[in-house]
Queue: 2 jobs
Job 1
Amino acid sequence: MTSTVETPADASRPAPSGLVAVAHAPGWVRYALLAVGLVVAAWLPNGLYPAVAVDILCWALFAVAVDLLLGFTGLMSFGHAAFWGTSAYVTGLVAIHAGLPFPLAVLAGALAAAVLAVPIGYLAVKRTGIYFAMVTLAFAQMVYYVANEWRSVTQGENGLQGVPRELFGVDLTDDYYFYYAILPIVLLGLAAAWRIVHSPFGRVLVGIRDNPARARALGYPVHRYKLTAFVLSGFIAGLGGGLFAVGHRFVSLDVLHWTTSGKAVIVVVLGGIGTLWGGVLGAGIVVRLEDWLSFSGFEAIGLVTGGIFVLVVVLFRRGVWGSAAALAHRLAARRR
Amino acid sequence: GGGGPQSGGDQKLTGDKIVLGVLNDQSGAYSELSGKNSVTAVEMAIADFTAKYGDKAVTKDISVETADHQNKPDVANSKAQEMYDRKGVDLILDVPTSSAALKVADVAKEKKKLYFNIGAATTDLTGKSCNRYTFHYAYDTYMLANGTGKTTTEQIGKNWYILYPNYAFGQDMEKSFSTAITAAGGKVVGKDGAPFPNTSGDFSTFLLKAPGLNPKPDVLGTMQAGAELVNVVKQYNEFKLRDKGVGLAVGLMFLTDIHSLTPAALAGTTYTDAWYWNFDAKNREFADRFQQKAGTRPTFAHAANYSAALQYLEAVQAAGTDDADAVVKGLEGKTVEDVFLRNGKIRAEDHRVVHDAYLAQVKPQSEVTEPWDYVKVLKTIPAAEAFRAPSADCKL
Amino acid sequence: MAGQALLSARGLTRDFRGFRAVDQVDLDVAPDSVHALVGPNGAGKTTLFNLLTGFLAPSGGRIELAGRDVTGLPPEQVARLGVARSFQITSLFPQLSAREHVALALQSPSGLGWRFWRSAKLMGRYTERADELLAMVGLLDLANAPSAALAYGRKRALELAIALALDPKVLLLDEPTAGMGLEDVDRTVELISRVREGRTVVMVEHNMSVVGRLADTVTVLQAGKVLVEGPYEQVRADERVITAYLGAADAAH
Amino acid sequence: MLRIENLSAFYGEAQVLRDVSLEVSAGEVVTLVGRNGAGKSTLLRCVMGLHPGQRGTVELDGRDITRLPAHRRARLGLGWVPDDRGSYATLTVTENLTLPPTVGPDPWSLERVYEAFPALHTRRDSAATMLSGGEQQMLALARVLRMGARLLLCDEPTEGLSPLLVQQVGDLLREAKRHGVTVLLVEQNLHFATGVADRHYLLAEGRVAEAMDNSEVRSRERELLAYLGI
Amino acid sequence: MSGFAQNTFNGLVSGAFYALLALGLAVIFGMLRVVNFAHGAFYMLGAFGAYVLLTEAGVPFWAALLIMPVGLGLLGMALERAVIHRLTRLDPLYNFLLTFGLTLILQDLVKLRYGVQSSPYATPSLLSGSVNFGLFDFPTYRVFILGFAVLLCVAVWWVLTRTRIGMVVRASTERPDLTRAFGIDVGRWVTPVFGFGIGLAGLAGVLAAPMRAVNPLMGADLIIVVFAVVVIGGLGSIFGSVAAGFGIGLVQAWGEAYLSHFPIVSQTIVFVVMAGVLLWRPAGLFGREEAPA
Ligand SMILES: Nc1ncnc2c1ncn2[C@@H]1O[C@H](COP(=O)(O)OP(=O)(O)OP(=O)(O)O)[C@@H](O)[C@H]1O
Ligand SMILES: Nc1ncnc2c1ncn2[C@@H]1O[C@H](COP(=O)(O)OP(=O)(O)OP(=O)(O)O)[C@@H](O)[C@H]1O
Ligand SMILES: [Mg+2]
Ligand SMILES: [Mg+2]
């Protein structure tokens, strides 16, 4: 019998469960998917406008960073723009003032993001679930205000213009070549995320997500693990943000705005929480969609993204990747 | 990848056509000020150009591309590149929001394609961020501040209290205002930077301070823009500062803002406008034509887009080619007269397009006789005075 | 007395917004003994467990483990010091297999869990030991099943295996036989009597026959206070215990 | 009045009730005995409609109420004294008492409640969870009496009460019975049980192991106590 | 001295908006465990609704003050029935995400129809004067807002603590199952409570219309500050939310007045306070501890 017991006390439940599709696909399927993914990545700027392809790469990193927390640690950060944006600014400043080759500047940016993630994470991981989301959102807004006020450094509203794309004198002004220059960094970032998820550390995170009390009883310092995950995620988001800054050759306050955090979450949920690669897919879809919409003459982009988002949350909580994986699973099961 | 083939001087037109790109905000804060109606204005310019030259026109194939940059510089960046590279755009127009405007200037420089900025106010476009392919067309912070500050001091009151949003634009405006006021013999008795963005939406702390200053300011100069301006003005009226003898001058105000706030809330307020639709018969004639197409009266941005598109086409016609360098050469130093540009001149030094500006005052509600006719022009500021001298920062 | 006790509490108190769940409890758990905590529902047994394991901070009193003050330490540190616990309500990681559970527990003291740059395959080094433990609780054939798919009694067994994997000095078991059928209860009793060798066990148990078979000492809690403490036979005959807990006071005349 | 047929209940995969069938006639007091964890409380929750994982049928006055939500069942005259006493921390004692609507023909007035339980009167403005365990138990019982419920589902109402209060609760139940109220009582205390009840069910491992009357319980007391693990 | 009094008064007026919004959030969260991201959007709809009623139907402020909260409350109830309800059994994050998506939709719908330019809304003539407080004058409208908000918060607090309605709501919140077992249809209370919370947001919006710029984005940034406010006050706590709302309004106003050389202070002070509160009392000033993790 189905009874109508509502359980608001469910606030204690750690992760959006039932979503984590980590389908155990057979090895050859995974290798085939990987190969397809690499081929698509290699071809992308030929099929899409290269600048859009560059954006997709950056957002893919951002989404994967958010999913690392949301899907694999059970923490929904609604303030990840703080890391993406901080890295963008630091990358830009380093590139402008130190004239370093861009990969080093991006690295500096990502490190700065990771450093910022320490105090914010320290405070935020004291809360879980919805509180965590609100607290990260609020702190990110604070970072936004600081960047806005710190005009002497960030150039305020005008944005940090003229971030160089320096790479030992190689001309990378063309986005087409720039795409290929950053592809290895992005793949490295994605591989790092994958490695983290599939490391002993990642196992502990999943344990913490599913049952923090149990993990503590096993001797795992849950707060410190969460904080470490938060910092790692901040670093990867920072990689994306730094590349974004170099990609656009400037940084504006938008990179720190809460709508940017929101967009990252949209990308992840659309792609599929806890799927990692879903975030990459989500980034492709959202960036491409927005690109298309801004030329379409349709005035309400939020209506479309918001609408899609609501649909996903209400009807396809597994997201694109998760739903596809589930479908493939069912088909495979039926054939057997 | 890369851009289309660069045309040499011998080739007339790339692809035998001209494509004008309107890149602006079609959904955000500036969408009514310029937005899609700027496209309409540009289409009018094309029609007028075609009608004028008929078969003698360099080409009959002139089209418009448009995109919404959502006031986001990163979107503006991608869209601008895409317009130049993929959509064959020869000239990008409009681009409000300073950060986006500056970004597109970079793109134009790199792609060596033309860019007429209309919507943005930052003087950096003709200062440290100027470049050979970028022209700043309609207005800038100096023009706004100088016009309003100087003329209001001369005509309305000498003592000022300045309230500005504490970010790049606001700080620039405050500085320019203070300079202009002092130069005109006025005095800034107090100034405050309000938090920006001001989430609480409350400016009462500052507004309450104004009447108590010594000497009491005659004018409150507010540099807030858009929704913040609306908040300031609402609260200015709430605290009845006008009744307490403190007049209002606004740094940056558009016709659409007056419409939002209603003339009743703003009666007596002074500000500088780059163009006003009901200034004279010529403007009015354009405004009537525009209204037929767009269903509303044009803002200065619409008129400026029209003018910019037209002047570009004229320049191409004159040069016989759409090669950017050739067109730039033709434009530099040119004096122009059209519905928007009065006593207009395209300065070669910094690519500032100078023209007459207007100190406007909002009419009392009782004198508003037709929709959108909200202001009277107190003074025409001659082109020579309206804009700053070419900046040393600009190296084209 | 406190000197010899492995785990001891003095004046341990815990308030929940005005409600005193554990009230001035003194407890001494002798090394190598099985110490049972019994008492009515709500007497404070689980709360006492939570205090002893650091899941709750005491409002007052102090806790010593082998002479060391562990009052207020967070649970993970208490666990590191050799105190393992099971939960009254089964508490597992639904997505992990039984073997992964045990491996996770085995890994805990090693610091391998911090290696986010290494492959999870490294955890393979624990497989052998994990399988031993699983065999011990009779779960070896189910080693690869995700814990969500285990039957309730099996989950309780897995709880035990995890706790053992920490190789604890003190094992705290909250109702280890709750929800088990009779055979399972017997098996669990037998298992506990095997693993108690060289360990100290504290358990909460409502099943008095289990208590009788295992416990050296029984502490009866009531309303947060220690009512009676002593050997099983003595405690079960105690009038106060019969009144407060066993509940057959009038019948016992 | 109450008929339960083939009731099974689960917590996740753990089955705690297995095909339980029993009946309580109007005006009867029936106890359920069984060890800790036998499933007694779960049974009451099933009757109340609060247990999500259940199979079987529950009938009240011949009407199948298996699919009715809990609040509709309460309106039919079911009153539940939960095993955890069900005190609201955010409500005062008086509010705890007046929260449920009256559902039967013979509700107690607030005055009558306070007369019967003077302790509650003195604490009437305290938050309910601030009361002592015994007082909370009184409150829980008083609450269903005030509802005027026709069928009381009492889960260990004497737990934590002093002997004096236990006697008083016995008196109350007997009085309620005289007024035609039916009671299904979960009780560990056999002595108490035989003092108020007409019949008994022994629940073991989720099954009804035996049905007994008072004399049978008294004669087998030692054996039963041993069985109950006491 | 009078300057201080004025600044304090203004702080309380800004705080009144925070308090009203936080109150609605707290009521909804307390009952449904839903953090309503769309709260700011409903605030905006309240203000916009007042504008539309006035310009398109000639409905005055006073009528709007009644119509908008009721109308939005009904909309909220429909929303609760249609979607929110389905997600309450899942992780609360889903409803947070849902209402986030909803915010984007609502903002854009208004934008599509009315554009982004702020819409005019005049102070009702009855309240357009000013009141003299001896030391200083004050716009009647502000006095009205403060009085109205305080009254409303007290009334809501009174209803939730002193009446049968409040009793049922509190009981349903604390222990829904138990409450059901006492013959109370918890589900039937949940929907109106959600509607009520939304109605409060709408009311705050109508009150804001004469004072603040009325545009589709007016609630967007505000809601984040309000989130910080409820984290400070303790998310479930009605009293805490209201107190923190007024408190933050005050602190911001003082910061603006006396630290005007550091504009960063008044913008970030709410977040700094939040960080402090998180360190000192993670559950918020008046919040309850969560169960041990
Ligand atoms: N987090 C908490 N907040 C408030 N009260 C609590 C909390 N945890 C426990 N209590 C109360 O403390 C008392 C003791 O609870 P505890 O769980 O320790 O009992 P127990 O002896 O383990 O009972 P059982 O045999 O049912 O497991 C109970 O009255 C309970 O309601
Ligand atoms: N929430 C729950 N989740 C899992 N198992 C549970 C839960 N509640 C009870 N159980 C188990 O269900 C079985 C029956 O519980 P129930 O509370 O019905 O027993 P009872 O006969 O009332 O026992 P007691 O005499 O202790 O009150 C017990 O084994 C218990 O451990
Ligand atoms: Mg317990
Ligand atoms: Mg029970």
Note: Chain E has a mean pLDDT of 85.
Job 2
Amino acid sequence: MSRKPEVNAAELRGRYPQIFDRPASSRMATPVVLAAALAIFAFGLVDLDFSPSRFISGLSQLGWISMMMIPPDPGSSLPLYLKALGETLSIALLGTTLAAVLALPVSLLAARNVVPSIILRFPVRRLLDSIRGVDTLIWALVWINVVGLGPFAGVLAIAVSDFGAFGKLFSEAIEGADQRQVEGIRASGGSALHEIRFGLMPQVLPVIAGQVLYFIESNTRSATIIGIVGAGGIGLQLAEQIRVLEWQKVSFLILMILVAVAGIDFISGKLRFAIIGRRAVA
Amino acid sequence: MTIAVSILPEQQLAALNSAYRKAVARKRLRLLAALAVFLAALIMSSIGAEVNLRTFFTYFGNFVSYFDRILTLDSGQRVWTNVGEWFWGLHKWLKLLGETLLISYVGTLLGAVLAFALNFFAAENTSPARWLLFTVRRLLEFARTVPGIVFALIFVIAFGLGPMAGVLAIAIHSTGALGKLFSEIVENADMKPVEGIRSTGASWLSCMRFAILPQVSAGYASYALLRFEINVREASVMGFVGAGGIGQELIVAIRKFYYSDVSAILVTVIVTVFLIDITTGWVRGRLFGKEART
Amino acid sequence: EDWRAKYPEITFAAIPAENGSGVTERYAPFISYLSKELGVKVTLRVANDYAALIEGQRAGNIQIGYYGPASFARARLTGVKTDAFVIDVNSDGSKGYYSVFYVLAKSPYQKIEDLKGKNLGLVDPNSTSGNNMPRFKLNAMGIDPDAYFSKVVFTGSHENAVLALAQGTVDVAANWWNADDDSNLTRMLNKGMVKSADGTVMKKEDFRIIVKSDLIINSPYAYLSDLPEDMKAAIKKAFLDAAQKDPEAFKKLSDGKNKPWEPVATEDYNKTIELIKFVDNLRKKAS
Amino acid sequence: MLVLEGLTCRFGAKAAVDDASFQVAPGSFVGVIGRSGAGKSTLLRTINRLVTPTQGRILFDGLDVTSLRGGELRQWRARSAMIFQQFNLVGRLDVLTNVLMGRLATMPAWRALSQLWSEQDKALAMSALEQFDIAALAAQRADQLSGGQQQRVAIARALVQQPDIILADEPIASLDPRNTKIVMDALLRINKHFGITVLCNLHSLDLARGYCDRLIGMAAGRVVFDGAPSALTDLVARELYDLEAADVMGATPAPMPQGVPALGTAAAA
Amino acid sequence: MLVLEGLTCRFGAKAAVDDASFQVAPGSFVGVIGRSGAGKSTLLRTINRLVTPTQGRILFDGLDVTSLRGGELRQWRARSAMIFQQFNLVGRLDVLTNVLMGRLATMPAWRALSQLWSEQDKALAMSALEQFDIAALAAQRADQLSGGQQQRVAIARALVQQPDIILADEPIASLDPRNTKIVMDALLRINKHFGITVLCNLHSLDLARGYCDRLIGMAAGRVVFDGAPSALTDLVARELYDLEAADVMGATPAPMPQGVPALGTAAAA
Ligand SMILES: Nc1ncnc2c1ncn2[C@@H]1O[C@H](COP(=O)(O)OP(=O)(O)OP(=O)(O)O)[C@@H](O)[C@H]1O
Ligand SMILES: Nc1ncnc2c1ncn2[C@@H]1O[C@H](COP(=O)(O)OP(=O)(O)OP(=O)(O)O)[C@@H](O)[C@H]1O
Ligand SMILES: [Mg+2]
Ligand SMILES: [Mg+2]
């Protein structure tokens, strides 16, 4: 057994008072912030009418609803659902792709490591915020004025509103890129364009691809815009079936969406592998 | 210019080049095939989505017409000529905005806490068992894939009308989305500290608490803040369950063509988005700005 | 006739009076009839939002629209140049309907005064029978709904309002009503769509009407005012002849409940416009 | 007394450690040398049970380390402290907390998770830091320290585990000459003062000769040399490292290498 | 001929490089030595103009490098190739493309952006790779290579820039002894065969002595030594590194350090 070092606690305490008796301000900071966050949370629960009894009774109701969902059954509406799913997929794919293509150059302007000047970056960021702040319903109406009712308006509405989100997300991905690789290009005499093309893009494209695919997925699920512009869509069908309490159709539609999303996942995995190599995907 | 490389003899070069080309060709072929598939999908979609560029360019001028109208008061003047009239409902809107923020806050916090509790099990490098990894991942996938609105509709039937259903729907969806993102951060975390702490005889829980958490908490906060912002907008969709807030008010104004109200509410919302973006940017900077740069 | 050259394709847009999912199937035969009759391609668009239809007509790319009375009034009020040309006619020959408040029969509520502090389910901000008329009626009774009820919610559609009531999500719901055997409720009951929270199928006796409004004029079909006159005439004729020339298609539209369309003029909706103006005025007063 | 009996550790088909058997007497300072990939790291990690051996046994004072599980396994890890080439500190935690990590195995979970360290533990950690002249940095974040300072923090962490044996995996590979000396001296001090056994992987033969009582040479997972530093002839060293002995032994290279290496003669990758 | 005249580079109040003046003759192999934070990296980065100097001038064959902007600046960067400690390759691009990055400054932008490399450039890049025995890896992604291989790719990139001078910033700090030798030999080969000037930061005095014609010692941003390696006395080295000379010079330490260092006597941080 080894000898243990001897420790004189009192003496150490005298030598390092700030370690042993941290000032109240630094000791209390975390608990105070936590308490404040919890207080707002508790206030929210009360203000928003949360009640444990309703929650419990609701849970049993949920259990009952899940029982009603078995087995999933589309009834006679399968062709209708398939068509709606197809429409939704087309709109989501096209709209999201368009948004990504437009957002990429703009996100460069919003990234700190590409445009160091805050004066230039600020308006771009605020523009992106504004676009995100405008409700998708408004974008739908705006595009109906241009191209009329129909799926095309949905594509454009999705493209614009996702443009705002992508601009922000992409610029954050760019800011997180490894600066050393960019420096390597610069040191060999590359121009700013070269730095972006060879130093940044290989790094951020995988991240961007992941985000775009996630948005395609989520647009596939969302009901709002696609229904408003008069293009049907699977989300609308789902909402309708819940409203009329056709639980078996509901579960069938949910399954359809899950399968579609899994399909997108699978295909996108393959595509990403092809584009950026296995390692980056794994 | 200095000669720094002696060019190889023709023959040797040809051999190397062909080896390179062969290796690259496979990659390039895959890339081209992928692009072709993607393009084909795009073309099919544009047929399905009835894309019509001619209409688009012919009537593009109409793009501003809606904005033109919402920036006009009932009296026919521009909105900024009479700000008092434009923002007549500011008091009410701020209250509704507060409600929206509260819904989003509670929903995001609930979701983030659940996601936090689950994400270590969903990350390849920290999950204690394969079956746990699989189960939790499927669970998160389900929570993420089923649209928020569906949960809201089901919850309104289960829990009754009111913000609770909306908040729970937001919370569930946030759990799914954040759980995946959180676990991705964990998968990118440096495992050396974990090993260091594990080697001292610490339990799994301690390893997560002391080795993983300090590395990932900034990332967690960043994603949770982003989610909060998304949920602020999501909350408007929850209007019909009685959890509308400002979003519901906006939709009513749009549908009833109260033009100047639309722009006034939009401005209120956009200013809020600015503030959230600037604040979250600041918080992110505080949390992990310095480390990220060094 | 040169209007066909100018309009080789026309768009017909409808807002689902019932749930969106059924509308496409219901309209399909009529659209093909219309297309045949007019000699141009007719495209059907079903938007689940009034605002989309109004904006579409304003931009001029929806030639024919099927409105609710209130949304038609709203379109006129916001300057859309569109004219009503035919109107739905009920099975009893009347050209209007009513707004009613339903409660569950097993509930203790007998009159509106019993419902203070309860939840009211309306339909949609632009729905006449589902929002405007109920507010008008309540105002006449001296009730400010937003203060009087604990919650006032838009359920999104007439069906949803009934379902919300059936499931107890709201305590009282506004809805349209034609006659004892013709209302949204009876249509839903016939299809077995109404189930209570525990899943049992409900009957007519499970509901009770506690308030009934004045007559509301029926939904119009409207075309853009600046279409060529001969084109407008052709469209109007096609509609008026529909019940005769293609009875199957016509019947499908209303499940055989409606009589043939009758001509109508935009002026017939002046009262509705007044009603909307009244409701708008309530807005700034309320705050 | 640490005893290894036929210890084997495979990753797939590859045996990273292959049938290693030796004993380490208490209080000795043993160096493990060998080429990259020889299995040095895996050997140490297996002893700490970060890696589970495929075959063979590890005994410590009669305790069968190979069969431990759960809490007992954690106790063993606490008794056999590891020091890593990359320090493996938690960069975002402060230095003191990093050192206190060495006490985790001895305290109840709830106290640890809420960071309620006992006064005693704090004093222990501070005194360990003081021993290495970095007590003044206790409140700084670990990733703000230089490499040498970080490694000293890691050694302090090992020390507060109050271990019976210290396993150091190339503790100086990332350090400059100055810090190398500081860190190796610290290990030596622990070894001689407290009698704690040290098992230390080293790249540099010079250092191994300078500090260790005994050397174990590994190649392709097998123990190929075991003896006093003085017994390590150039021949053995050359075999171990597969290099010109002069390069291995760290003799100052001739001021200008004999003739410039011709093009295309660079060693194969 | 590279000439530095009173070169100063400040970050805020701190002068990372402080009034440095010296000349480097064409074809020489100059080592820059000094403690961590002495300003070695900043010196090299300023010469390449990755960092803009605060004061002073850099001249190369009469060209005033300090005043260059835009395209001319990029030409200069191409002429003064950098090699980094962390390699600074683009991990997701393949090895050949990484080497071709060295040609960017010489080709029209549109060709570069669409990756239409000329046959000539490709031959150049492939030959450079073959010189370092890694032509077989040309199609692999750079981040799949080992450290030593990556650094060789970086050197190949520097070579295809056809530079007049190579600035190497601790090129071997992340490498093991074996790769260290390979990389340093490669630099030496370039220097002797093609007469390209090499300016190389090094941590290890042994290596500096072994490979360089001339050493420049820095401390706190100032040039404190400039002369032949043989002129670097123990005294100077001690001053440079603030250490016992014996430790710096890499002489084999005594088999067992005289007496165990007492507790608390470790060198101050
Ligand atoms: N987790 C693992 N999975 C698969 N193979 C591994 C793993 N860890 C180590 N190996 C392999 O086992 C062999 C021995 O590795 P080890 O890290 O023990 O060598 P080492 O002597 O420490 O080398 P170095 O000096 O580079 O640290 C190597 O070939 C390595 O590739
Ligand atoms: N971008 C920068 N901003 C602020 N200070 C800097 C920056 N770059 C370097 N410094 C400071 O300048 C001084 C010299 O740094 P430099 O990197 O040149 O030293 P070095 O000799 O290369 O050290 P090392 O051996 O650690 O690489 C250091 O004190 C450093 O903190
Ligand atoms: Mg190792
Ligand atoms: Mg440096």
Note: Chain A touches chain B through 73 residues (CB under 8 Å).
